[in-house]
Specification:
The structure is a single chain. About 45% of the residues lie in helices and about 15% in strands. The protein is built from 10 helices and 5 strands, in the order ααβββαααβαβαααα. A 5-stranded mixed β-sheet has the order 3-2-1-4-5, with helices on both faces. It is globular, with a radius of gyration of 18 Å. The two termini are about 25 Å apart. The mean pLDDT is about 95.
Length: about 240
């Protein structure tokens, strides 16, 4: 078991083409966006993923969906979606959940290129998600597996931000569906990565409006709020 785990993390290194190496190096050379830039002057990227299952160490990244929030507004024209080509099609029950069929998985974008496409879309702007640990871990594992790259980026987790801003709702609103239902944010394509990213972006907009009333106006201050809520929840 230990050897299997080690082989996944330290096994054969991927062989990138020269063009792929150049794309990765170009992304790494980009300047990091200022975290203290006010939301109404900044670009944040809201992301969601679909996977072959919920096991953080065993399952595979299947798709990434993302939408940018630019200057406080959702930029529908600044969105991203990709299906990574899968070496093995996921189980039938998994396909029924996210709707990405076997043909689409087999014909997806080669994983290294799909991840480079995502990095180029993201640039060095901060990431927003709901329950960051899952999305972050799956993306990091894929980056390591296919690009031999340790993806370390700034994230903020709406699963902690929203309870911090709405303590009276913390006990009744725990999932993304709970929060979006409470704020009447509709999602007709649940478990589609891009659709889920879009509703999370709408929730982020709600949070930005509430945060502004508490004089929280940028990503750095939002992260501080999240850290305080993690402390309240006993989460490091």
């Amino acid at each position: 078991m230990i050897l299997s785990w080690l082989s996944r993390w330290f096994g054969n290194r991927p062989q990138l083409t020269l063009a792929q190496q150049q794309r990765l190096a170009a992304w790494q050379s980009l300047p990091r966006a200022a975290s203290a830039l006010p939301f109404n002057e900044a670009r944040c990227v809201v992301v969601d993923v679909e996977t072959s299952g919920l096991n953080l160490m065993e399952d595979r990244l299947i798709s990434i969906g993302a939408v940018a929030v630019v200057n406080g507004k959702i930029a529908l024209g600044d969105s991203f979606y990709v299906v990574l080509q899968q070496p093995v099609v996921s189980a039938r029950e998994n396909i029924l959940l996210h709707g990405i069929g076997g043909t689409a998985q087999s014909a997806g974008v080669p994983a290294a290129d799909a991840l480079l496409d995502f990095l180029e879309y993201l640039r060095r702007d901060p990431l927003i998600a709901f329950h960051v640990t899952f999305d972050q871990t799956m993306i990091q594992r894929a980056m390591r597996s296919y690009l031999d790259f340790s993806f370390k980026h700034r994230w903020s987790d709406m699963a902690y931000v929203m309870p911090a801003l709405n303590p009276a709702l913390a006990a009744r609103c725990r999932s993304l569906d709970d929060w979006t239902s409470y704020f009447d944010i509709r999602n007709e394509l649940r478990h589609n990565a891009l659709a889920d990213a879009l509703v999370t972006a709408q929730l982020f907009q709600v949070g930005m409006g509430q945060a502004g009333k508490k004089n929280i106006s940028d990503f750095s201050e939002l992260r501080d709020l999240e850290k305080a809520q993690r402390w309240v929840n006993g989460v490091s």
